[in-house]
Specification:
Elements: H1 11-21, H2 42-54, H3 67-83, E1 91-95, H4 98-117, E2 123-127, H5 133-141, E3 144-148, H6 159-164, E4 170-176, H7 188-197, E5 201-205, H8 213-218, E6 235-238, E7 251-255, E8 266-268, E9 276-278, H9 287-324, E10 329-331, E11 339-344, H10 351-360, E12 366-368, E13 373-377, H11 382-403
Parallel strand pairs: 2-3, 2-4, 4-5, 5-6
Antiparallel strand pairs: 1-7, 6-7, 8-9, 10-11, 11-13, 12-13
The structure holds pyridoxal-5'-phosphate.
Length: 415
Amino acid sequence: MTVIPAKGRPWSDLKLELEDAKKDDFSWQEGRMALYFYYLDEEVKRVQQEAYESYWTENAMGKKVFFSMQKLEQEVLDMGLALHHAKAEAHATFTSGGSESIFLAMKTARDWARKTKGISEPNAVLPRTAHPAFDKAAAFLGIKTIRVPTTRADYRANAEELEKRFDANTIMTMGSAPNYPFGVFDPIAEIAAVAKKHDLWMHVDACVGGFLAPWVKKLGYDIPDFDFAVPGVTSISADLHKYGYAPKGASMMMLCDKALHEYQVFSFSDWERGPYINDTAPGTRAGGAVAAAWAVMNFLGEDGYTAWAKVIMDTVEKLTSGIDTIKGLTVLKPHELCLFVYTSEDPDLDIGAVGEAMTTRGWFIGRQAEPVGIHMHLNPVHAKTADLYLSDLVASVAEVHATGAKVTEAVGATY
Ligand SMILES: *Cc1c(COP(=O)(O)O)cnc(C)c1O
């Protein structure tokens, strides 16, 4: 078992050891995987790192001492709120990631429903495509989840089917903008309308789309309204550490009305040190994450975000049209943002085996379970590797045709 060494070792040795430790990892720099990371270029990386370092030691929980932190954080939150068409009475919280944003939204919904409606055995009605973070939060919070598969061919949630599952203990429902499995937008306006009719909390999970979709829309793509512009939306999660291009540890949870914030706050005073009050899942929070998010948002600006969004959408177009020309492979449609799935429609071409052949060629493959396929989650870095990906895919398909390989056992889950 590893223990803390009796004597410290020089940083020069440790640094080399860290660099060496990565040598067998999949290389995100080379665009060898389409998930887990967000990378623009070395210039943006330097902005992230230096900004993070400038608030290296500050604790974002210490709002009474680090006044500048509070100001930076508020500016980040205000930029996010404005981007999501929030009204003046809205409120936002800087969180550590999408899972925490979703946790806080569900916690706030639970305590709101308990206080205003006396619901003590709450349930949440979710489209089956909702991210597992909803079930994780629900498990922590004592909320039952009811997942409703869609019957729509376009993979979007069906508001009527969700509504049929509402009962007296339902506190909330949600829609994704877009969902992770297929990359399509749920009909947020329709779901929000049924939520409103039943006085339910309506959450929009824009973790992946919140800081990308507005720019894609500006580029002229047909992106539906999904944020506070839609009547009946109560809360939104949007990840800064995804397409906001902040370093990891940055997301936001937004509330349509600051009056709801009272249900978010945790307040405790039964200990010797006096009252402890805060509104996030963690206590101590990295000041660097806030400063770096602030710096990247100001560094890129609308122009930068829009230009990078174009790189992503052009790469989606290049890859999907390339994949569609490979005999036997089909890209599932629709897909609307940076995510898509492709499958095999040829019984003699096993898509799992194609994935294995791609793995042998050094690509990390995101595996879709239903329908069995390959899931892609793009970054600007994939613009540089798209041609290589496609030529390796052609070779992999030819190999599987030649060998007739099939993957019979389930290949390990992506996460
Ligand atoms: C990434 C993601 C989450 C979870 O966010 P983390 O930052 O990984 O905790 C939730 N919902 C969607 C749609 C996501 O893409």
